């Protein structure tokens, strides 16, 4: 595999093979197959999926056999709806699991009152809007997560997400302004920005120095229009194929990511496109994305 930009590592998340929000998607696929196909497609690493062994020693051995590693993983925070003590306890346990696997990044997403997992709630209606007190709880809590991550040589990146209280440009701005740049990085998810109607070129340009992790997925505009017209939920949108991988969509990822390519970004580009594996063959998607990243971004 050739990677001209050796500071950037490329991976593919397991969500194309089996879905954490809808475990029935790809439910029959063993985790060993996911890891093997990630490696076979030419990726250097992956993220944590719901089927991966909870024992880091077992998982680490499987990773080493294939020459890949764990880059990061999703952590569900409830800073706006649960006590700090509850959040701290679950964060530390998750941090220690990832640290044992050699990962350097934790992807944090606030899940208080999210509608992303509700099958029949239209994704563009009724997402949470945080009060001033909740924003304060969120930003202070994230800074404390950052400190806890630093204790073991790790970082956190905040994952903006459809159906949550941090989805839009103004909400991302508020989160970035309210947190310490040394403690909280930004996870740029190109697919979620496009889905929400934000401008990923603008977001990446503005926060290039704070980007800690990148999720690469594209959208199918015709499906997105149906999601709006038919008032579909986030899960229904996934089932209809709103997301796809770079190289199978319309977005110019080089244009979006140029500030990172030019600016010394040294994290991961992680392909992560939730799709129904019965409709979109995961290995084919992985090969398509890997070829696109190599040819168009030089990674």
TrEMBL record:
Q: What is its EC number?
A: 4.2.1.44
What domain of life does the UniProt record list for this protein's source? Bacteria
Q: What class of enzyme is it?
A: lyase
Tell me yes or no: is Signal among this UniProt entry's keywords. Answer: no
Keyword Lipoprotein annotated = no
Single GO term (MF): myo-inosose-2 dehydratase activity
What the entry lists under SUPFAM superfamilies is as follows: Xylose isomerase-like
Which residue ranges does the record assign to the Xylose isomerase-like TIM barrel domain? Answer: 37-295
Keyword line: Cobalt, Lyase, Manganese
Q: What is this protein called?
A: Myo-inosose-2 dehydratase
